[in-house]
């Protein structure tokens, strides 16, 4: 523990010192930007439309200053453009108009709040050399993985050889013993042939009867079990048109379920999010990190980047703008309640405050969504019997809770006591 | 690069002249297949141990085994939006305020949409002045999903594109020869922006005429009003301000003068502090209005004229000599006395299609200074002019019309002289029909411009002067349609959309600074000009002058003179279910039982018992319970319709018969099953709804699909409890609303007492306990609830033959009972006086007599749905516990548990359970809306679509109560009174149905439960229902 604290302390001191150093260095020379500061500014202001190495809504910005310098444009021009590109265009600046028209006359937001130093920092960030492709770093990792596989095989092989040797040894030992016995003249006593056991069994009527009953009951049990699972699709895990990983979104990224499934709060349907909800984030996330990509390829055989491209194809996004050529995604529905059963998400999610995972299982660990619960009536009823109604701070329940708790003599009412077992509450 | 390689299959192919190759090319098998060898040998076939049946068994078994082994669910796909609209959350309904205005029905409504599909029409409670949605408006949502709609613009029988349509029609319109008219023939469109558009079109093209045509005309009313007040409109009536209502042939609870008067009427029918309105009806057909009247006087149409003239002379003055039968004359005298004593609290209306009659009614109301009568506010929902339509037909025949453009009308079906119209159409250079259907008219036109349904359109309406209603689309157009106004805009070269056009028009002329978006959101807007701008300014003075010139009573005398009768008189009327017939392809409406005759899928000639006996016409029930009726041939002025079925209608005036419009459609725009009845429009000569008629008996019997086989109460006063106002006001409730008693240890004990209860009471004090109250005084029997229930609960349509077998599926029915004596009270007395089996007072013959209704019976309506008994007889007999009781008072029905023994239906004393004898969805035998993908879009996704072999019944809209509870839970608040609604209670514009939680002691329903008028249906059975009825009080004390 202490070590950790010390380490933190050291790193803090170091970073403080670093910042101090940087501050001094900037004061020494205003032209030298601070790429660290620039990165945060870039992410806050520019990242919605620009990437370093890829055109998005706006052009890519790696080494933009150098590239503009080739065009003969200086820092003054860049400052003017960033603070108010529109004015520059209107003023008739040739290059400004050229850019504007090249990018389908998409106006860039004005950033008058950025100081010269801010811009310098941002440009310093953009001027950083492109990091070596991470894939290269990945090579050895992948190799390591492969090696691991080989070693596993090796161990297994060694074990197999070992067992083989053991078996051989046993055979040898037996043969040797037999030889000894032969040598000593001992003869193995042959058993006298009595009644075969099956005939004895067949002649004992009581046993036959008991066995028959046992078999009938057992087969009845299994037949019943078989019929009862007809139509129960627990574990149903269909292949979806787009490989969507709940593990990454809900688990790794910790996105709230109801961010995407927002209608669960107010509607009977939890709703499959429309593609524009996906694009809230994926407008700027067009590829996953190299580690995630590699993980997807090795563990699940999926190229996540390709799946994001599938999304773009469906929503009609060409990387910079919507083409209008959209193609709705035909998801395969996993949780299918029959028509005669009424279920309302908002009742459970908003009113009762039940976690989604209670019924849907560990979604944040599911690479591919599957049906966790059996969704049978018995399953519903059990939960209604066991779950207490969340009456606190809900004006609706005030009166009914008071009266019902008096009636049943309890403090906490279950859904069943509230009337949650009545047929008509779910079947109409 | 193609290769020249040749492939050969045998050496023989290398030989060019080989016969074998030739033979093989012709026939795959060189040798004949020896079929005779294994099929020809009869003996071998018969002696074979594997017979054909065995073979099929093996096949069957192996198929079954294979399918069982492959017992896997289907793969279900879910396809989310690419970009989800922000206002749509799957599973949550959105409501839009809009308008239904189809030329016959007009109502401001709320439309419930689910995932963008309109699925139900509800009342817009903000639209206080625009009427409430009737049965037809409620059903109109199904018209949106009609698979027989025109899906693209058409030229003749071939589909064309809108571009082609626009370019061809524009050039043709421009190329019309001079002197020829362009005529718009439209239904009543009280739309300010459309009228401006048409006038803009007129100024561009010149020589444009706009003819407004109502299939069922109110032209006489409009003419009378115009003559008196100078503008074309109909005076507004508010029956909630009337204490005495006298109607001469005016079916104001039906479609009289555009309809929509029933909610005002019902308000004053509920006794309040001992007071309720008194309603006297003079009429020939038994109408819904007559059935609700305190006093109903049957008289022929010609007598109606005399009665109205007499009434005028008695109330206003002036001598009119009329010759009326004594009983009617007395009734008129009495009505006049009551009107005079009520003074300005009285109102007189008439439905006689005669300018004089309408003038007389206006004059009486003016004389009375009636509070219910408001000539300043005009009703604009009927605007047609008979003369203009006749003139148009004449112009067409004369070849004066260059272009005829119709919108929302079907004259080839609704005009009595449709053949003249067709002749004239041949001389029209360009004919364009804006229509949703390829109906009788559109199919004869050169172009059909496919129009969207009301629920897909923009529109604005001024139902009453100053009271506006806004129409907005609730779904993207399902088909390639354009509305009339959009095309008009294009023709006039206006590039704006119709929505923007309305907005501009409203901003400039109507809104007066108010927000347009608010008006769209509310669906209704009351203009500041509602009172300020007198509509009658222009020309009113001249008509006043005319008024002075004509001495008082002129109209009445003319009216009296015009009454001539020779022989049988026919009154043509519109049915509550079918109206003018434009929704004839709507299976909900076809299957909707007429409130009076309780007959579905038909129209028929209503004949009085006396006339029927004289002509030998009969109605009889056959062995399976179905109702059969004689056929007659009906002739009006040379036009004959053969084989019109007859219903003997109690209350029908002697010497008169009735026939409903809206049936007998023939066009391909209807499914075969919907082409029911006969077309009464062919009798509608000169737009006169009263015609002299000859009726001859024809051979054969017609099979009706009538849902109520028993017409009288047989003196069982505890089914519909009723009393009169005097007893109600003066006597204790035990006198007129007695709780039935049983004997316990020789002491009469009320059945409500726990001492005589077989059952242990459930504890219902906790949580909600739902009750539904039905006020028999406010219920007019209009049936809006029946259709609302249909739409909300996915109730299937079963068709005429099944209806005839009493297999109707309506969860909510409105029973109609006639009295055997003149009143129900007299029935009760008669029953009480039975003694012994035989003799004059014997019950054996007596009950037989009581089965037949009186000539002019009292009528009572009673909506009956599942009574949700607290001690439900159905629950105890279910062998699988599929029906069970909920703590909230609802009797639950678990369809998936039901095995279809039907014990529950047998044990139900109210007969409200419905059995699915067949699979009614996705079944070609029941080819109604549930059999096509489009029609199924109207289904409510929150309610199960039932399958074959299960029982179903009213659930007290548990899906709605559960939703209300959930909403409250999510908000963390108690449920407010009025939040709980069922489909029927929400649809009832009359306030007859009130739903709520009786454990909420401050609620309206809790108050009604304790009301003196409250009783349970068949209380003596001891079922303790959760549906309560309020005793009917008739204002008959003065009789």
TrEMBL record, chain A:
Cross-referenced Gene3D superfamilies:
Cytochrome c-like domain, Cytochrome C3
Transmembrane residues, as ranges? 154-173, 206-227
Q: Which GO terms describe its molecular function?
A: electron transfer activity; heme binding; metal ion binding
**Which keywords has UniProt assigned to this entry?**
Heme, Iron, Membrane, Metal-binding, Signal, Transmembrane, Transmembrane helix
| Coiled coil location | none
Leader sequence residues: 1-30
Which residues are in the Cytochrome c domain?
33-130
PANTHER family reported in the protein's UniProt record: CYTOCHROME C7-LIKE DOMAIN-CONTAINING PROTEIN, LIPOPROTEIN CYTOCHROME C
Name of this chain's protein = C-type cytochrome
Automatic annotation (TrEMBL), chain B:
The UniProt entry, under SUPFAM superfamilies, shows: 4Fe-4S ferredoxins, Formate dehydrogenase/DMSO reductase, domains 1-3
Q: Which superkingdom, per the lineage?
A: Bacteria
Q: Could you tell me which Pfam families the record lists for this protein?
A: Fer4_11
The 4Fe-4S ferredoxin-type domain is annotated at: 770-800, 889-918
Secretion signal: which residues? none
Q: Identify the NCBIfam families for this entry.
A: MoCo_extend_TAT
| Protein's name in the database | TAT-variant-translocated molybdopterin oxidoreductase
The taxonomy runs:
Bacteria, Pseudomonadati, Bacteroidota, Flavobacteriia, Flavobacteriales
